[in-house]
């Protein structure tokens, strides 16, 4: 990734069109027409040997004849010509090229070289970036650049739209122009062979011209980079995404469209949710989301008031709101009294507010004014149905005036629905021009509102402080990995319940009592000792994994049954497969508990995002990605709770309200432990646990099937989200003898970290934050503790007090740019623990980390008053300089030349 190298994509000062043309229906003519008509102020240079001028602009016969190096080149030729053009452009010094040709991945040149691979090779050799191929191009209205084949331009605005589909681009453009909605950036990725979603999200997430981001996705190539960039961007601005391939057939079509990998739709959904994005299901919802984002302010709350001139549309809106999980605002007595003064006696006197069918512009305006003055609502939805007694345009105009002049207009969101077509069109047009969201139906307006609500809820849920797992719950990766390696050495790729017991116990996961016996006599003896009820199984790899029969289980209730049952099972196996090898029998003591509930948990291996955890109820036709809630590891207790809530909300899991049924804390603990197991053990490909018996606080895994990879796996690369780097934990002793733990920060550290921050003296806080600042909020602390280890790092130093409490003594953190070029650090040490070497220890830890991360530079800034910090940095090898104008001390280290050292 390189933000520097795509700078020219967003801020080009000159453009060359390779393959420019005067011929009708030629891409080279369409691009030239759009460039010349959009108001771009820089030079536009057509390159073609066929014409002296293209559309009146002097043309150049070849790339080498260009008078200057273009920042941006648009290649409008056939696929066969693209590799050589890219090589010549790159050699000439061009920084970014847009490739419009399609089918390059499936074509070869006369030497048998793949066209796309050859193009990428040339571009990479000279450091040039590529957008496409199969791209429609891009539009940047703020600089008057329309470097696209779009049939219309884009209006200026604050929404960025990025799409893998050119057809979706033109459809959205057509609709947005009709609605008067503009864009900060409008980009067609095409096949995304080089510049991809992750780099664009990094740029747009920081772009001051962009307040919201919309994505159309067929497939994702770089899971880690995509999620990391999306998580960072969604903290600052909403990201809405529409994803194709919701069906199996759709996945195939999406793969053919972009050449990407076909992942599971439910796992994509989980990834979007984890990144804080909001998914919309179709273009209608996408348009509604664009409408709401274009004109709305951030929601302060979820209370919605509906006002209407008809009861039916108001009821439809209220129904949609409740079905979608929204909240109707409660009208206060004061508000009702004020409304009584302006509304007929027959008005509804509750929310929704039915103003009666003859409501004119004055009644609408007065009602809206009362609601905007009250503190009853966060959003107001104004509905209007056509009526011979009222003029819809006049009402719209009156409402626009009321809103524009109201002192509370920035505190509330106002949404409108003018139902109908011909009679409502002009009213909707007035609202659009005034920047007020308007919709064709009551339900559409409510769905747009709920998009904003869901985004707000998702952000809050992702910022929850997780509860720590109790210290007495084990997580012994060494035991688990040893047992898994032993299984693989035996050539075993499937591990059943009785073999998985010790692996699961290493992570505090409870299974039923299991015994493996070699013959019927031993089975009788063990079953008698075990007590009843028990289950008797046959263990036969040939039968279980090489035929259509998946095993025979018989539940026993008395000792007289055991011998007969065992022989019956063996006879049945040989009837099905006379050559089956019977290795032995398994006796399992059943964990039957009255009032418990059976659920099912699986871990699947998605081709795009890797391991994914599934939670549902199971069944013979169970498809984990259809019938379960899905989440990506790593999970903590808060994220596990979010998963359980999603499962209950979507009826993938039903709380049967049994006496010893679902316990939220116990379920979350089990899911978190399974997440730890999957992260620590790359040997595990998939797990199916069916059933899991939930009996209140006791969770028992009854039947486990664990499938192993038959070859070594890249543990870090297989995970979509970088897990907590436990290997970076370090115990050190300070010069006063105090033993401290240095480790990366965790989300669970928020309460202790807030206590640490509050412990700093006024002087230390002033130095740390470059001025006086108030107490940290929960949202600010969430940003500091819930970090993405793939792009930032924070080390804390902790010690254990005499009372057994963990105490945070100091912290150092640094955020890195997407290029991994420079990390900027900041540090603080608890005021009463300074002068004992803690700061040096923390900064050395950070230096070592970024050296091993291959980061080029580490920099930091401190105030003139903080000379101790500057002295420490200088002693560790930083170059220290003084900025007299800003009154700051700059500390800079060239990590590349400091040498590498092991952690």
UniProtKB/TrEMBL annotation:
Keyword Secreted: no
Entry protein name: Protein lysine acetyltransferase
Transmembrane segments: none
Pfam families to which the protein is assigned, alphabetical: Acetyltransf_1, ATP-grasp_5, CoA_binding_2, Succ_CoA_lig
UniProt keyword terms in alphabetical order: ATP-binding, Ligase, Nucleotide-binding
Species of the source: Shewanella litoralis
Domain N-acetyltransferase, chain residue ranges per copy: 740-896
């Amino acid at each position: 990734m390189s933000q520097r190298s795509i700078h020219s994509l967003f801020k080009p000062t000159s453009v060359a069109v390779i393959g420019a043309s005067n011929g009708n229906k030629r891409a080279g003519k369409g691009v030239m027409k759009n460039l010349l008509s959009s108001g771009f102020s820089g030079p536009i240079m057509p390159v073609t040997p066929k014409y002296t001028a293209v559309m009146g602009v002097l043309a150049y016969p070849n790339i080498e004849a260009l008078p200057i190096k273009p920042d941006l080149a648009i290649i409008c030729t056939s696929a066969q010509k693209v590799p050589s053009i890219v090589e010549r452009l790159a050699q000439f010094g061009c920084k970014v090229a847009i490739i419009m040709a399609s089918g390059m991945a499936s074509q070869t040149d006369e030497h048998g070289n793949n066209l796309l691979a050859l193009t990428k090779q040339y571009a990479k050799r000279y450091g040039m970036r590529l957008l496409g191929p199969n791209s429609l191009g891009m539009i940047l209205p703020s600089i008057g650049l329309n470097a696209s084949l779009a049939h219309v331009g884009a209006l200026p605005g604050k929404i960025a739209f990025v799409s893998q589909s050119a057809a979706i681009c033109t459809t959205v453009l057509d609709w947005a122009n009709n609605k008067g909605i503009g864009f900060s950036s409008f980009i067609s990725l095409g096949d995304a062979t080089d510049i991809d979603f992750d780099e664009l999200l990094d740029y747009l997430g920081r772009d001051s011209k962009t307040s919201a981001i919309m994505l159309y996705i067929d497939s994702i190539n770089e899971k880690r980079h995509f999620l990391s960039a999306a998580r960072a961007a969604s903290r600052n601005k909403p990201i809405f995404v529409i994803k194709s391939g919701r069906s199996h057939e759709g996945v195939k079509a999406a793969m053919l469209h972009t050449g990407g990998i076909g992942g599971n739709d439910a796992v994509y959904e989980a990834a979007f949710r984890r990144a804080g994005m909001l998914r919309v299901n179709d273009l209608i919802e996408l348009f509604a989301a664009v409408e709401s984002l274009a004109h709305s302010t951030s929601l302060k709350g979820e209370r919605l008031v509906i006002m209407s001139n008809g009861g039916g549309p108001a009821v439809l809106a209220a129904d949609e709101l409740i079905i979608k999980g929204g909240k109707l605002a409660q009208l206060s007595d004061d508000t009702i009294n004020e409304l009584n003064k302006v509304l007929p006696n027959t008005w509804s006197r509750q929310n929704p507010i039915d103003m009666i069918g003859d409501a004119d512009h004055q009644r609408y305006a007065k009602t809206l004014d009362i609601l905007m003055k009250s503190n009853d609502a966060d959003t107001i939805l104004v509905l209007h149905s056509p009526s011979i007694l009222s003029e819809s345009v006049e009402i719209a105009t009156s409402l626009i005036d009321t809103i524009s002049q109201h002192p509370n207009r920035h505190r509330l969101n106002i949404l409108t629905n003018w139902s109908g077509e011909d009679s409502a069109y002009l009213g909707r047009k007035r609202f659009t021009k005034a920047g007020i969201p308007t919709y064709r139906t009551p339900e559409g307006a409510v769905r747009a509102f709920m998009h904003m609500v869901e985004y707000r809820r998702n952000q809050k849920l992702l910022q929850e402080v997780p509860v720590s797992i109790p210290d007495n719950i084990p997580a012994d990766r060494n035991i688990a990995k040893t047992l898994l390696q032993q299984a693989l050495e035996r050539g075993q790729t499937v591990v059943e319940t009785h073999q998985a017991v010790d692996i699961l116990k290493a992570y505090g996961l409870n299974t039923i009592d299991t015994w493996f016996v070699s013959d019927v006599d031993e089975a009788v003896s063990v079953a008698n000792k075990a007590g009843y009820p028990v289950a008797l199984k046959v263990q036969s790899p040939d039968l279980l994994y090489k035929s259509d029969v998946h095993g025979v289980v018989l539940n026993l209730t008395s000792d007289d049954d055991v011998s007969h049952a065992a022989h019956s099972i063996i006879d049945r196996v040989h009837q099905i497969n006379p050559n089956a090898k019977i290795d032995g029998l398994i006796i399992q003591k059943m964990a039957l508990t009255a009032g418990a509930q059976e659920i099912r948990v699986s871990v699947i291996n998605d081709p795009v995002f890797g391991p994914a955890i599934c939670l549902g109820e199971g069944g013979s036709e169970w498809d984990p990605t259809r019938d379960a809630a899905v989440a990506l590891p790593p999970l903590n207790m808060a994220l596990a709770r979010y998963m359980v809530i999603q499962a209950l909300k979507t009826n993938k899991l039903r709380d049967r309200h049994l006496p010893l049924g679902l316990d939220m804390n116990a379920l979350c603990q089990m899911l978190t432990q399974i997440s730890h197991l999957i992260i620590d053990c790359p040997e595990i490909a998939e797990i199916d646990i069916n059933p899991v018996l939930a009996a209140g606080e006791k969770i028992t895994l009854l039947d486990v099937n664990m499938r192993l990879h038959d070859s070594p796996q890249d543990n870090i690369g297989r995970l979509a989200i970088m897990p907590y780097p436990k290997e970076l934990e370090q115990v050190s002793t300070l010069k006063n003898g105090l033993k401290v733990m240095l480790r990366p920060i965790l989300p669970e550290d928020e309460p202790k970290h807030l206590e640490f921050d509050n412990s700093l003296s006024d002087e230390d806080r002033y130095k740390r934050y470059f001025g006086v600042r108030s107490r940290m909020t929960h949202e600010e602390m969430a940003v500091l503790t819930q970090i993405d280890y793939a792009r930032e790092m924070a080390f804390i130093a902790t010690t254990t007090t005499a009372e057994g409490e963990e105490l945070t003594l100091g912290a150092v953190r640094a955020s890195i740019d997407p290029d991994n070029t420079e990390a900027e650090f900041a540090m603080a040490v608890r005021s009463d623990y300074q002068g004992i070497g803690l700061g040096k220890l923390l900064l050395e830890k950070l230096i070592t980390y970024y050296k091993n991360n291959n980061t080029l530079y580490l920099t930091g800034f401190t105030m003139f008053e903080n000379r101790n910090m500057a002295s420490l940095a200088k002693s560790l090898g930083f170059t220290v300089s003084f900025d007299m104008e800003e009154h700051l001390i700059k500390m800079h280290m060239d990590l590349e030349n400091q040498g590498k050292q092991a952690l």
